[in-house]
Amino acid sequence: MTFNIWLLFCTTTFFVSATPGPNMLLAMTHGIHYGLVRTLPTCAGLMTGLGLIMLGSVAGLGALLSTSETLFSAVKFLGAAYLVYLGIKTWRARPVSPADRSQSSTHRAASRFRTGFMVSMSNPKAFIFFTALFPQFMNMHRPQMPQLAILAATFYLIEASWQFTYACSGVKLSGWLGTERHMRTLNRLSGGAFMGAGVLLSSISRH
Q1: Cβ(31)–Cβ(112) under 8 Å?
Q2: Which candidate, 166, 174, 194, 181, places its Cα nearest to that of 89?
């Protein structure tokens, strides 16, 4: 893998990660509700899930999902069901103002980590994505593991940076959402987006 190929990979990853999806929506929503520091466990859960997806792809799970319709469908519908559940939960959540948020202890770090992890793992297409993406930037005539390590670390850092950016954007937005009415509207918009993501996920195919 040459330096120019690596730069191309960086550019591709930058725009892929920047695209709003369930992971970035969750980082921003938690940034709004809990502030930046309390959103870090959410991001840690998202990144842990991402790391397992990359490891699974390297281990061949992505290839298995791409060939097994039954396994792909099972993972897909479980992931879609979780996103819809999260959307309903967010839609129905009690509005919490920024002042109340700082005093609230009902949402523990472990719970936010678990939510991030589950959202990250909810899309089986991600396994296939990594299985298909990484080989495009690798030199098959050179050792594979060092190249995989470089690509994985690069993707990981860029993805983490975007999650942090979305979380910071959520923190800034929280200043405009000081009323209960605005927070309720936000909950319904976020909940609707998660439910929509679940519906879209349920309709995807392996190809």
Answers
A1: no
A2: 194
Instruction: Look up tokens 């990359």; give the residue.
Output: 54
Q: Give the span between the Cα atoms of 194 and 82, in whole angstroms.
A: 9
DSSP 95: P
pLDDT the model gives residue 105: 46
Give the three-class secondary structure for 97: coil
3-class secondary-structure state, position 51: helix
- Segments in the chain forming alpha helices (H): 3-18, 22-59, 61-67, 69-92, 98-103, 109-120, 125-133, 144-174, 180-203
**pLDDT tens digits, 140-149:** 778 878 888 8
CB 49 within 8 A of CB 150: no
Give yes or no for a contact between 23 and 126, defined as CB atoms under 8 angstroms apart.
no
Taking the C-alpha atoms of residue 165 and residue 157, their distance in angstroms, rounded to an integer, is 12
* Of 137, 141, 91, 112, the residue nearest 31 (C-alpha): 112
